[in-house]
Amino acid sequence: MKIFKDVFAxxxxxxxxxxxxxxxxxxxxxxxxxxxxxPLTNFSFEENNLIEKSFYGRIPLENATSLFYFFKKGNVxxxxxxxxxxxxxxxxxxxxxxxxxxxVESKRxxxxxxxxxxxxxxKKLKKRGYNQVTTFGESLAKKLEIPYQEHILVRISSTKxxxxxxxxxxxxxxxxxxxxxxxxxxxxxxxxLIDDVITTGATLEACYDALSHTKNLKISIACMAYTK
Length: 228
Known about the structure:
This protein has 228 residues and is α/β, with parallel strands linked by helices. It folds into 2 domains: 1-37, no CATH class; 39-227, 3-Layer(aba) Sandwich (Rossmann fold), CATH 3.40.50.2020. It contains 9 helices and 6 strands; from the N terminus they run αααβααβααβαββαβ. The protein has helices at 2-11, 32-37, 50-54, 75-86, 90-106, 122-128, 134-144, 167-173, 202-211, and strands at 61-70, 114-117, 153-155, 178-180, 190-198, 218-227. Strands 1-6-5-2 form a 4-stranded parallel β-sheet. Strands 3-4 form a two-stranded antiparallel ribbon. It is globular, with a radius of gyration of 18 Å. The termini are far apart.
């Protein structure tokens, strides 16, 4: 079997999703050089980090983190674009494994009971074929040894893309978009709410509005990247 893999690799080499160069046998998804260039936040180890401060007065968070900083036209944007629009779901696994190791090491996220993703509207999910945070969340769940629950929080109406909207417009556009299918299942729990990129935080705030009706619920947040 290894011989066939080696022959296949000669004619169809795996390439780095960052620089498009061929990957070495010990590399996966991106090469070592590109990995070293990724802008890490280290928020997992930092109390009162920039994400947590950005949600003061908006969401009563326990903890929050992201693996990377997000810059326009940067390598993180390129990686997430590959995941979100090119079906390169191994990117989500790669980021989830990396961030998951940080969460375990930091010990600030030890009390999590389950992971809940920001959901896509069913129409968008059907069109794209997958939620871009699924492999990310599943990898985090394995590292933290907790369930990944993707059907409790649902999106009840779709919106146009949020990318080019101003903060107030984005906030208005996500109001009352989410619904909790089973509040009782989350009572007295500490959930890790996950998404791909935090920009204004309006989507996560709308998720909190739906989740806040659950008795004694604690919320922490983990995302792939944070926009400064």
